């Protein structure tokens, strides 16, 4: 699996922006990706040193479209802690 296939997109929320000062960044990743793959992908894409990776599965919410009930897809969130002094340039200025 390619590194860019594992990391789907960065998560920009109020909570994740607050954690950036601690060197923690949040990403949406593939459901089948493990912590080792996520760490290698972040290091390859952004050229930083990853200290810790925490992952969690997020269940999809129920949604209605008129009388029909559907469900959004489940997804996986990864919170990556970088070595002190490292930062990801994509998130600069947030």
What does this structure look like?
The protein starts with a helix and ends in a 12-residue tail after the last strand. A four-stranded antiparallel beta sheet has the order 1-2-6-3. Strands 4-5 form a two-stranded antiparallel ribbon. It contains three helices and six strands; from the N terminus they run αβαβαββββ. The chain has helices at residues 3-6, 14-19, 35-46; strands spanning 7-10, 24-29, 50-58, 62-65, 68-71, 75-82. The chain has one domain (3-85): Alpha-Beta Plaits (2-Layer Sandwich).
Characteristic key phrases:
94 residues, alpha+beta, Alpha-Beta Plaits, 4-stranded antiparallel beta sheet, two-stranded antiparallel sheet, 6 strands, 37% strand
Please tell me the overall pLDDT.
Answer: 94
Please report which band the strand proportion falls in: under 5%, 5-15%, 15-25%, 25-35%, 35-45% or over 45%: 35-45%
Examine the coordinates and then state which fold CATH places here, giving the name of the CATH topology.
Alpha-Beta Plaits
Helix content: 10-25%
The strand count comes to 6
Task: List unreliable stretches of 5+ residues.
Answer: none
CATH level 1 name: Alpha Beta
From the alpha-carbon coordinates, what is the Rg to the nearest angstrom? Answer: 15 Å
Summarize the biggest pleated sheet. 4 strands, antiparallel
- Global morphology: globular
Strands in their spatial order, largest beta sheet: 1-2-6-3
Which architecture name does CATH use? 2-Layer Sandwich
Given the helix and strand composition, which structural class is it? Answer: alpha+beta
For the record, give the distance between the C-alpha atoms at the N and C termini, rounded to a whole number: 30 Å
Please report the number of helical segments. Answer: 3
Organism: Symbiobacterium thermophilum (strain DSM 24528 / JCM 14929 / IAM 14863 / T)
Keywords: Ribonucleoprotein, Ribosomal protein, RNA-binding, rRNA-binding
GO molecular function: rRNA binding; structural constituent of ribosome
Family: Belongs to the universal ribosomal protein uL23 family.
